[in-house]
Amino acid sequence: MKRDRRITKDELKIAVHDAYLKFKNKSDGRNADYIPYLANIDSKLFGIAVCLPDGETITVGDCDYRFGIESISKVATAILVLKEYGCETLLDMIGADATGMPFNSVLAILLENEHPSTPLVNAGAISAVSMVSPVGNSRGKWEAIKDNIEKLCGSEVTLIDELYRSESVSNHNNRAIAWLLKSYNRIYDEPELSLDLYTRQCSLGVTATQLSTMAATIACGGYNPKTKETVFPGNLTSRITSLMATVGFYERTGDWMFSCGLPAKSGVGGGIMGVLPGAFGIAAFSPPIDSAGNSVRAQLAIRYIMEELRLHIFDCYKAVMAEKEVVII
Question: Within 13 A of 327's CA, how many CA atoms are on the CB side?
Answer without folding.
Answer: 1
